[in-house]
Every structure is written in structure tokens, then in C-alpha cells.
Amino acid sequence: MNVFATHMTHGFKTALAAVLAYAITTVLALEFGYWAVISTVIVMQVYVADSVEMCLYRFSGTIIGALLGVVVILLVPKTPIPVGIALFVTIGVCSFLTRYRKRYRMAAITVVIVVMTGLQTQDAWLFGLSRVMEIGIGIICAFAVSVLVFPKRKVDVLRIKLEAQAEQCAERCLTLVEAFIARQQHVEESLLTNLVDDVWGNFALLEKIRQHESLLYRKKFKDNLTHKVAVLSRSVEHLRNMARALNALDDSGYDIIMARELKQLADQSGRALVRFVKNTPATDPQGLEQAVSVLKTTFLTIRKEGLIRRFDAEKLVQVFSFYSSLLYFADDIHSGINAS
């Protein structure tokens, strides 16, 4: 679903939840039913995980704020200055506490609602309970619509991101190997910057899915996503080490004898990573393992023949660093496939 369609769906769902909340409060003849409608608009988000998170924050914050508001109504004289001081203290404390929990922002909003609309009420506890019920109706409507009507799940977003990132890793690996073979050419620092940031952002997305979607969509979550996120994060770090090795020296470089074996391993590693992330069966299950074996055998042969003596110390470190990082890249992918 493209961005336009996603937000069109979000608009439809928000409107539907608001109308549903309005219908319920109308049937129940609630005096301040509009708070239910407002709550649906506040908590409804594009993705299910975000909506569930907002529902939890809104409801828990509403209870805290309602309690504070009732205490203000019961204990504070109903004159402007004491009420102003009470609002200053309660809103200030709730706003400060948002550094620990986002729910306190909702608590501050509810304090204002309860105090400003309930100063003249005869039964403060019943008034506060009514506000919790109205806002609760809105939250329930938003939750139901978010989960049941055209749900947009972050677990699906994560899958799409992982597949795109795996393909980028495969492409970047080939680019780095080709630069290494071409007499150790430098590569742009930006080659991996966005990819690394994007991959490390998977952990925050995965945590949100665990907290707010995994219980709702157990079948959707059973896809070894945690393992895939970990393998991709290690993969981009190996690629970054390869780029650092390439850019470590400013010299004319050397021709690389095992260029064919390096390219073969880069190609097999990239293909294997993409298949692993997409759950696609391998056409050649032993391809990556064989490519690793061939490269190691070729390297040992070159070393025995003394062909690496042409490198000075700094160039030797550069070559070994690049060679090792590529092997680690391949080994992590191979281990990830075997462990899945």
C-alpha cells in the first residue's frame, strides 16, 4: 500500500472511530460525550502498534489525571487564585513526569478537563468517573477500529524494511569488493551511512512490535524477525569495516590475485542474505559454504607461495582487514541461515 492510500485509510478509520464513539455516547445520553469523540482522534494512529500504545497512554493517563482533578475539586476552594495554583502544581508535575512516562501528558490534559468542567459539580467522584468512562469509550472505539478495520501492522513494515535492507547489503558488498579489486579504490562515506542508521533503527521498531502487536498477531510475529534483525545489524557492521579498510590508505594500490574468488563470495553472500530474509529456499544450498572454502584455500595457497610478501606492513593490514571482514560477513549470514 502506498503512502497516499495508507493515509486515506487512516483518515477513514479515524472518522469511523469518531462516529462510532459519538453513536455510543448518544445512545447512552452522556452529557460530555464529545470527550469520547475527541479521544478517538487523539489516540488513532496509522499503525496498530502506535494506536495500541496511544490507547494505553491515554487510558492510564486519564485515570491519573481524573484522580488528581477530583482531589483538586474536593480540597481546593473554588475561587480563581486557589484553583489557578492547583492547576499550576498538577499540570507542572504531570508535565515534568513526562520525562519518565508519556502517559503523564494525558494526565495533565485530563486534570484540565476535570477541573475546568467540574468545579460546580456536587459529586466530584461521580464526575471524575464519568470523564474516565467517556474517554474510555473513545479509546475502546479507536482500538477496535484500528485492530479490526484495514489494520496496518508494523510487523509488515518491518518485513518490507528487512527485505529492502538485505538487497542493499548485497549490492553494497559487491560495490566494496569491486572497489577493493580495482587497486583498493576509496569509497564515499555516504555509501553505508543511511543503510547503517536504517538497520539499527530496526531494534526500536521490533521492540514496539513486541510490546504492542505480538499478542494481537501471534501468527504474523512467528517469522524469526528478531534473528533477522540481529544478522542484518552484524552484516552492516562488517560492510562498514570493509569500507574503513578501503579508505585507510592513500596509495595507488595493488592488483588482487584472488579477485574472482572475492567476487564470487560477495555474490553468494548477498544472495544468501536476501534469501534468508525473504524465507526463499536456496537453489544451491552449499553455494555460500563452497565460496568461503574456495576463498580460504586460495588465500592459503597464495600465502604459502609467498605472494603476499610484496605488501608492506600497512598494505598487509589493509588487505587482511578487508579479507577478514568479508569472511565475517559471509560467516554470519551462513550461521544465521543454519540457526533459523
Radius of gyration: 29 Å
CATH architecture of the largest domain: Up-down Bundle
In whole angstroms, how far apart are the ends? 29 Å
Number of helices: 14
User: How many separate structural domains?
Assistant: 2
Main beta-sheet strand count, sense and barrel state: none
Query: What gross morphology would you assign?
Result: elongated
The poorly predicted ranges are none
What does this structure look like?
The chain has 340 residues and is mostly helical. It folds into 2 domains: 3-148; 158-339, Methane Monooxygenase Hydroxylase, Chain G, domain 1 (Up-down Bundle), CATH 1.20.58. It has helices at residues 3-27, 34-43, 48-75, 80-97, 103-118, 124-148, 154-181, 190-200, 202-212, 218-221, 225-246, 259-278, 287-304, 313-339. The chain is elongated, with a radius of gyration of 29 Å. The model has no long low-confidence stretch (mean pLDDT 88).
In brief, what are we looking at here?
This protein is mostly helical. It contains 14 helices and no strands.
Task: Provide key terms for this protein.
single chain, elongated, 340 residues, mainly alpha, 14 helices, 2 domains
Give the secondary structure arrangement, pairings included.
Blueprint: H1 3-27, H2 34-43, H3 48-75, H4 80-97, H5 103-118, H6 124-148, H7 154-181, H8 190-200, H9 202-212, H10 218-221, H11 225-246, H12 259-278, H13 287-304, H14 313-339
